[in-house]
TrEMBL record:
Pfam families: HTH_5. InterPro entries: ArsR-like_HTH (IPR011991), HTH_ArsR_DNA-bd_dom (IPR001845), HTH_MetalResp_TranReg (IPR051081), WH-like_DNA-bd_sf (IPR036388), WH_DNA-bd_sf (IPR036390). Keywords: DNA-binding, Transcription, Transcription regulation. It comes from Candidatus Magasanikbacteria bacterium CG_4_10_14_0_2_um_filter_33_14. It comes from the Bacteria. This is ArsR family transcriptional regulator.
Amino acid sequence: MPKIKCCSNKKISNELKKTVDFLKIISEENRMRILCILKSGPKCVCEIWPNLDLSQNLTSHHLSVLKEFGLVKSKKQGLKVFYELNDKNLQKQLINLDLFLK
């Protein structure tokens, strides 16, 4: 039986793992809601957490996970940290997902 193309190439397998990790991260409802909130532009945690019915600490944790994976980026302004979508990396993740499903 021949090997399936998306599983036999080491580089493609690495991209597959990244795509699976992406899906795991966005499959958490609150993280997806944060991404949706950030579609309208940069926001500080104080503008995000009241819309989630979560504590500020838990919201910050979800933002940290999204930032670590590169889906959001942050910029400190004074005492506040503003988060925004990392459109370039989000687009890359969606393109990879599309490649595996088509």
